[in-house]
Design goal:
The protein is an all-alpha fold and about 50 residues long. It has helices spanning about 5-10, 20-35. The chain starts with a helix and ends in a 13-residue tail after the last helix.
Length: about 50
Amino acid sequence: MSTKPLDKSKPGYQEPLPDSEVDESDHEGNSESDFGEAPRYGGRKGKGRK
């Protein structure tokens, strides 16, 4: 769980982060995925989040 693909994506996320920060990074990853698909649905920001 320490080595996540997100860690490699973000240069500042290479350090061992606390549980709270790790949770945030997980949410960020989901948000990014939604934002990437949002424009496909017509640029719906917010509604694209499930």
